[in-house]
C-alpha cells in the first residue's frame, strides 16, 4: 500500500504554481522525509495530502487509494501543522476532549499517560505551555488518534535541540510500537539523517529526488581526484561537482556496486546530508524512480 | 497493531460511519460558551430595563388611563431606547458571528480542526447551526419582551405606529430575524476576510446597509400600500407619502401651500393644519413677502372645507396598523431565508477553502 500517491499533481495559487507535475508514491511503513528549500512546495504537498487544499491539476490519493480529505482519509491520517496550532484559550484537558469528540478513535488513556510522562499539566491553558510543550501536546493529540499515517509539517522548526530530540523520540517510539507510517517535512537535515528511511526532495515546485534512503546512498558516491581530469564528466552521471584547488569532488550516481573507480580517483560513500545538499545546489539534477533515472544522462538532461 | 494489521484493513474508510454529531455539541459549547454568556448578559441587562419600564408604563396607564396613553412621557423615553437597541443585531453579528471562522483562519487552528475525523463541512455546519439557533432563540425572547414592554403605547398613542421603523425591527420575529442575519453576515465575512477585526467592521457595515435599505425602501412594499383621500389623521397607520390633487390631477405641494398661505394656515403635520407663525417659520421661498400681508382675521378660516370646496384632495399612501403581523412574518421570513443562504455559502466556502 502506498500511503501517499500522486500523479501529475499540481497546485496553483493565483498565477503561481506552488507545486507542479508531482508524481510520487510513498510506500507504507516508512518514515519519509520531505526536504527542500523554503517555498519549494513542501507545505503545499502536505496540505494537498491531508485535504486542506484541493489540487489544481492531477490526483492525490492516500492510504491505498482514498481521496485526500475524504472521511476515510481524515480518519486514518493525523496531521500536525506548522507551528503546531492549538486553541490557546483551552486547557490541555479541553484539547483532549475536543480531539476525542472530533474523531472516531481516540486513546485518552495513552494521551494522559504521555502528557504525564512529559510533565505537561492537564489543567494549564495550551497557550501558556512552552513551545516545546505545545508541540508535544499537538503530537500527543495526533498519536492518540492511532493514525495509519502521521503527517508533520516542519515539526522541528521552532524547537530547541532538546525538544527536537524528545519530539522525534516520541514519533520513533510509536513507529517502533505499531508500524505507523510517517511523512514529515523539514529543513533540519541533521535530525532527519537519524530517523528517515525514505527521502523526497522537492525544489522549485517539482520533485527532484525520491526513494529509500539506503538505495539513494548506495546509488551515489563521492569521487575525489585531480581537477584536471575532465573525462569523468563524459562517463559518469555527475550530480554535483566541487573543486578545491587541484582536487575535484564529484557526487556521482552509480549503476551498482560493481562500478569501477577510475585510476587516480578515490571513492567515498556519501552521507544523506551531503546528498541532499548536492541536489539542492544542482536544481537541474534529478534522481527519480523510473525512466528519469538513467545512468548516462547528464544531470540537466534528466531534469528536462 | 502492526504495519501488517493496519494495511490489512483497506476497507477502513471505504464506508465509514461518520463521527457522531453529538461530539460537536460539546465542542461548540466549550468554544463559544463565553460568547453566548456575553450575549445573554447583554440582552439580559437590556431586557431587565425593558421589564422594569414595562411595569412602570402599566402603573401609569392604570393611574392616569387614556390621558397618559395619549400624551404621557413614554414616547420620549421609548425613542432613544429603541434607537440604542437598534445596534444590538449589528453587535451580535460582529462579536458572535465574525470571530467564529475568522479566528480559526487567523490563528491557524483550522489546520488542526479541519484535519480531524469529523470533517470540515460537517464541523462548520454543526457549529454554525448551533450558534445560529442559540442567537435566534435569545433574540426572539428579547423581541417579545420589547413588544410586551411598549404594548401600552405603541399603536395607541398618536404618531407611534406599530409599523414605525424604529420599533418594528425590535419586535416579534423581526428582531430574531435581524439578529440571525447579522450572525450569518458575520460568519460569511469571517470566512471571506479571514481576520477577526476587519471581518467585524465589514459585518457592521454590511448589516447597517441592509437595515437602512430595508427600513427606507423594502418594508413599505411588503404589500401594496393603501391610499386614502381623507384629511383625518391616521392614528396608528404608517404614512408613507402624501400628495395633493386638484380635480383629480396631481398638483404640487407648493401650489397647495400657496393657497393655504392666502388663508394664513400651514400644514403643521400630515393632515393637521394650523395658523401660520409669522416670520421665520415660512415654508419655501417667495412667500415671505405675502406672509406679513396675510390678514389676521383669515387665521380663523378652517382650511379643510375650503380646500375640499375648491376641488383639492389630499391622497395619503399608508400601511394600516393591522398589517403588523403579516409584515413581521414577511420580514422574519425573508431574513431567515437570506440567513440560511449566507450560512450555506459560508459552509461552501469552508469546503473549498484552500489552505
SSE map:
The complex is a heterodimer of chains A (304) and B (355).
Chain A: E1 2-13, E2 16-27, E3 31-35, H1 42-50, E4 57-62, E5 66-67, H2 71-76, E6 77-80, H3 92-101, H4 108-118, H5 131-144, E7 149-153, H6 161-178, E8 181-185, H7 189-195, E9 198-203, E10 206-212, H8 213-218, E11 220-226, H9 232-235, E12 237-244, E13 247-253, E14 266-269, H10 272-281, H11 299-303
Parallel strand pairs in A: 3-8, 3-9, 6-7, 7-8
Antiparallel strand pairs in A: 1-2, 1-4, 4-5, 9-10, 11-13, 11-14, 12-13
Helix pairs in contact in A: 4-5, 5-6
Chain B: H1 3-7, H2 22-64, H3 66-71, H4 74-85, H5 88-107, H6 110-113, H7 120-150, H8 165-168, H9 172-193, H10 196-218, E1 226-228, E2 238-246, E3 249-251, H11 253-263, E4 265-269, E5 272-275, H12 288-291, H13 303-309, E6 312-319, H14 324-352
Antiparallel strand pairs in B: 1-6, 2-3, 2-6, 4-5
Helix pairs in contact in B: 2-5, 2-7, 5-7, 5-9, 5-10, 7-9, 7-14, 9-10, 9-14
Description:
The complex is a heterodimer of chains A (304) and B (355). Chain A has 304 residues and is an alpha/beta fold. Chain A has 11 helices and 14 strands. Helix content of chain A is 33%, strand content 30%. In chain A, β1 (2-13) and β2 form a beta hairpin. Chain A has helices at residues 42-50, 71-76, 92-101, 108-118, 131-144, 161-178, 189-195, 213-218, 232-235, 272-281, 299-303; strands at 2-13, 16-27, 31-35, 57-62, 66-67, 77-80, 149-153, 181-185, 198-203, 206-212, 220-226, 237-244, 247-253, 266-269. Mean pLDDT of chain A is 86; it is low at 290-304. Chain A has a 6-stranded mixed β-sheet, sandwiched between helices. In chain A, strands 2-1-4-5 form a 4-stranded antiparallel β-sheet, with helices on one face. Chain A has a 4-stranded antiparallel β-sheet with strand order 12-13-11-14. The two termini of chain B are 33 Å apart. The interface between A and B is large, with 51 and 37 residues.
